[in-house]
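Holo model, pyridoxal-5'-phosphate. Inputs:
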Amino acid sequence: MESTINRRDWFKSTISLTAGLTLGPSLVQQLIAAPASKAEASFFSGGKKMSSKIRLNSNENPYGPSEKAKQAVVSILSEANRYPFKETEDLKALIAAKEGVTPQHIHIGAGSGDILCQAAVAFGIEGGSVMSSYPTFPLLMNFAEVFKCRWDRVDANEKLEHDYDAMAAAVKSDTRLVFICNPNNPTGTIVSPAKIKSFCEEVSKKSVVYVDEAYIEFLEPAQQVSMVELVKKDMNVIVSKTFSKVYGLAGLRVGYIVAKPELIDRVYKYAGDIPLSQTAIAAAMASMGDETFMKMTRDKNAAARAVLTDYLDKHKVFYGKPLSNVVFFPAPRDGKTILAKMEEKGFLMRVWDYKEKEWCRVSIGTMEEMKMFVKAFDEVVA
Ligand SMILES: Cc1ncc(COP(=O)(O)O)c(C=O)c1O
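Output:
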């Protein structure tokens, strides 16, 4: 598939760059920013940079951080001369209490991406394979590939959901880790918690299952069924969460995993273990469980998302049922032109290659931004 060749080429050049110790963005930063299509590779090769456009390309929260988080950051500044050793333990204890586990079940990182990379080393360093649905958030698998670990991909079903039956059937004797993302990035789709639970129960007997719940708080509270319940049953399941999305703290960098202590130790072994900053910890502690802020984000996001899905419905464009802050649909014209013309009109978005086609991935901004986006997009694809 084009996308595979494209990514492999990108990684090859990335690795040789790193081997030559060229100064510049780290390998992980390059992997995070890796193009998801030939169109993106070509667009960015012209030296394009993220600029002060309307950023519908990183699934960020356009409303965050909350006032509580901002106040906490301001208040903690007078402690900026102190290493945050105690505060790190305080945050871990608070997260453990929220998740209903012990602090030994928690590992904190500079964003959940930090820990995805640690897990990629922990489970990929001895080779074998990691498996996931595709398309999905590729960081863990991309980083595992750097260690010569194979990435086995299982195509999503026709509704752009993880195909859990096909994934269960694809587990091999050398599968070290199975990555699932619920709700999924880039499709925004979910699968029923009962299905995910039975998948995890079965597959975790053969391989570790890593459940990325970065977007789970975008679901209505009754739908927010976390697989942490399986961790409490001592299963081979790691659940990943972040403060970057609904809590709007992507720039401060706090994420964590919940798992049984032996799995935590296996991942933690590859952590640099440099504490987070006082400000990040303070903002995360002030934000956690802030239902008012989360509800505001959820409600505004759903209303703004409807602007885009209504537009796609009107033009009979297929998309996966999005339940988070991202929508994924087939590109109505070539991806390179879409990226370039939308950038000219002031919007950043993504284009992915999947199944020999190009797909648009659009993050949900504010209502105003989405109204402007559909107008501009309509002009570009007309
Ligand atoms: C599914 C998923 N997991 C993890 C991350 C990493 O986020 P962060 O490192 O900010 O926690 C992202 C970022 O977009 C994501 O989409």
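The domain at 67-287 is CATH 3.40.640.10 (Aspartate Aminotransferase; domain 2). The first strand starts at residue 54 and ends at 55.
Archived with the compound record.
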